[in-house]
Design brief:
Blueprint (H helix, E strand, L loop, with lengths): L3 E8 L2 H9 L9 H12 L7 E5 L6 H8 L3 E6 L16 H6 L4 E5 L15 E7 L10 H11 E14 L6 H13 L5 H6 L5 H11 L13 H6 L8 H11 L9 E10 L1
Parallel strand pairs: 2-3, 2-5, 3-4, 5-6
Antiparallel strand pairs: 1-7, 6-7
């Protein structure tokens, strides 16, 4: 496995979101998904024929935009819930219809980190990215997913990943204190406990990603602290209408609003 240069590990901020919105081509929304897509677009070099892989693309417009507007060779790997028979994937559209409607994208059905592995070319891609996808990976498969992405990325290639991370405040003040303690004690905690709660804080998630790529020496923490996440008004959070949309689509009156931010990980492979 090659080493990586860390370009950015941070949380999405309102300053950049407003700038992306002001200059948006295509138009973006003032939410986490809008930030994530704009951040990825701005970080991918403007180079015709760039070989790009979207991990967990779902029904996103981003792969099509990169293929049609940026001239990228775009692949997308996702199983569209076929392995789970989850109605979430079919309530709006048949996945096969979506795939047929986008011949400009090379869809590969499957999930990274699973057996058998999706049929993707090793060391082929110039850029591998994901938006609101990797936080859905079960903790037990997290290392394998990053290892699979590493095997698919060429030396000199770029990884761009935006992961949804829930604010500790969503579960009250006591949970904030627990999250602070989890980050402080992280280096001495048993590995099983660290892995089980790797999505507990942005710092623990970033540490897990770097550890999976065997570059744990980087200090993934200065801008990812729980206290800053709670107090900094510049950190982008998912707006309330996102929760309302889920409630109306799913019909679940138990849905409550969780403050969610976006953890940004930008790496370049040596």
């Amino acid at each position: 496995m090659h080493g990586y240069e860390v370009v950015e590990i941070s949380l999405a901020d309102t300053r950049r979101l407003l700038e992306y919105k002001r200059l948006a081509k295509p138009d973006i929304h003032l939410n986490l998904k809008g930030f994530d897509c704009a951040w990825i677009i701005n970080a991918i070099p403007a180079q015709d024929g760039l070989r790009v892989l979207d991990v967990g693309a779902g029904y996103s417009w981003l792969p099509s935009y990169l293929a049609k507007e940026r001239g990228c060779e775009v692949w997308a790997v996702d199983d569209f819930g076929y392995s789970e028979a989850d109605p979430f994937w079919t309530r709006s559209m048949d996945p096969s219809e979506h795939i047929r409607a986008h011949p400009e994208i090379k869809y590969v059905l499957g999930r990274l980190g699973a057996d058998p592995a999706p049929d993707l070319p090793k060391g082929y891609f110039d850029c591998i990215y994901s938006a609101s996808a990797l936080e859905h990976v079960p903790p037990g498969q997290f290392n394998r997913v990053w290892s699979d992405m590493d095997s698919l990325l060429r030396p000199g290639g770029t990884m761009l990943h935006a992961l949804d991370i829930a604010f500790p405040t969503s579960r009250g003040l006591s949970h904030v204190m627990m999250a602070v303690g989890f980050d402080l004690l992280h280096p001495i905690l048993p590995s099983g406990l660290r892995n089980r709660f790797l999505f507990e804080t942005p710092r623990s998630c970033a540490r897990a990603a770097l550890r999976a790529l065997r570059c744990p020496g980087h200090r993934a923490g200065r801008q990812l602290g729980v206290v800053r996440m709670v107090l900094d008004p510049e950190i982008v959070t998912e707006p309330l209408d996102f929760t309302l949309n889920r409630l109306m689509k799913d019909g679940d009156a138990r849905v409550r609003h969780f403050r969610v931010g976006s953890l940004l990980i930008h790496l370049v492979k040596h």
